[in-house]
Design a protein that fits this description.
alpha+beta, 4-stranded antiparallel beta sheet, 3-stranded antiparallel beta sheet, 13 helices, 13 strands, elongated
Length: 376
């Protein structure tokens, strides 16, 4: 087996996946950086880009540029630098992933103390910073070359058309999206403004302005989940005063709260004080009744009908395991002003009507229905 993990495909540098994962089909020189299933999950979620699918005698390739920087370092330490191709575009040849940007976004804190807690956003911001670095470098080099040849950077001719050094570099930056899907503007003027902001403000200029609002919304939903677990053992609907008193006890460390779904014990240090308006909204919102309604009412049917959406219920896998029984009175008259009553039984697994009876009154056919149900 070849011990070179690098391979070019469609003019893009790729790495054989067998050199990365640990599993049944790993290469004998694999770095075992991740499990087989973990790598497939990253490829499926788009965090690592697949360059070529696996086939007979054809190993799976992933793009070099999509690999985390620590993986790239490990590959270089073990197998050396990948050989460059002269056919690569200038942007690809000059592109270097900015590891300092990655560290910046990984540890960045907003004014409320929250972090960027989505890996794909950290990768997106890191890639955008790396692309802007490359764009700035390429523009300065090209501009210097044109000036050295006594040309004018803002007035050039390429393929018979008038253009500028910046427009050429901006077009190459946009074409680079085919290799690395960055989210920088395609418009030349907008891209120039973005680069200017980046050079003036640094890494922070790339962070989307709405991120703080999104973070705040998530924190609020976490508080609601905590409150539902805080009152899961209460038989009566709590008042605003009781909510405030018990929540303050949790914040002060006198009350322990456990997540009923995961068994996790909540940490008071992760939660802020709640205002009276927040508590009032919590009690008024119908979706928050679900957390305590079952134990307060003791009526499972009411709980299911109020809070369990029908499309969230799983259909039975086997015919005959569950049947649904209901009465119906179709809008058809067998005499003037008189309609027949039906009792039907539907098998929820096969969705077939397995039993039915009809008569002039509902009370008169119920015994016949269950008798027929047993016979069937």
């Amino acid at each position: 087996m070849s011990s070179n993990p690098y391979e070019y495909h469609n003019d893009q540098l790729g790495v054989q996946a067998a050199f990365l994962f640990e599993g049944r089909n790993q290469h004998e020189d694999s770095l075992c950086l991740i499990g087989d299933r973990g790598l497939r999950h990253r490829i499926k979620s788009g965090k690592i880009c697949r360059l070529r699918a696996q086939g007979p005698n054809t190993p799976l390739l992933v793009t070099w540029l999509s690999l985390p920087p620590q993986w790239q370092r490990a590959l270089i330490d073990r197998f050396g630098e990948p050989a460059k191709r002269t056919t690569e575009g200038r942007f690809v040849r000059h592109f270097i992933r900015d590891t300092r940007a990655y560290d910046f976004y990984l540890t960045y804190k907003f004014s409320d103390g929250s972090r960027i807690n989505e890996d794909h956003k950290i990768e997106e911001y890191t890639l955008n910073a790396s692309v802007l670095n490359t764009l700035d470098l390429l523009y300065r080099k090209q501009k210097s070359t044109v000036i050295g040849m006594r040309g004018t950077p803002n007035s050039m001719v390429k393929n018979g058309n008038k253009t500028t050094v910046w427009d050429i570099c901006a077009a190459e930056c946009d074409n680079f999206k085919d290799i690395q899907a960055h989210t920088l503007p395609s418009n030349s003027a907008a891209l120039r403004r973005k680069l200017r902001e980046y050079k003036n403000e640094g890494y922070q200029s790339i962070i989307h302005g709405n991120w703080c609002n999104k973070s705040a919304r998530k924190v609020f939903s976490d508080e609601i989940e905590l409150l539902n677990n805080l009152f899961a053992d209460v038989h009566e609907k709590p008042t605003a005063t009781e909510v405030s008193r018990r929540y303050d006890g949790f914040i002060d460390g006198y009350v322990d709260v456990i997540n009923n779904a995961t068994g996790e014990m909540y940490n008071p240090a992760d939660y802020p004080k709640l205002s009276n308006a927040t508590i009032t909204n919590y009690l008024a919102k119908w979706v928050n009744k679900a957390g305590t309604h079952a134990i307060r009412s003791g009526n499972r049917q009411v709980l299911m009908s109020k809070f369990k959406l029908y499309h969230t219920l799983e259909q039975p896998k086997y015919a005959g395991s569950i049947i649904s029984i209901d009465d119906r009175q179709p809008p058809f008259e067998y005499a003037d002003g008189k309609r027949a009553w039906f009792y039907n039984a539907i098998d929820l697994g096969s969705e077939a009507i397995t039993c039915w009876v009809y008569g002039t009154t509902k009370e008169g056919i119920i015994d016949d229905f269950y008798r027929q149900l047993v016979r069937n």
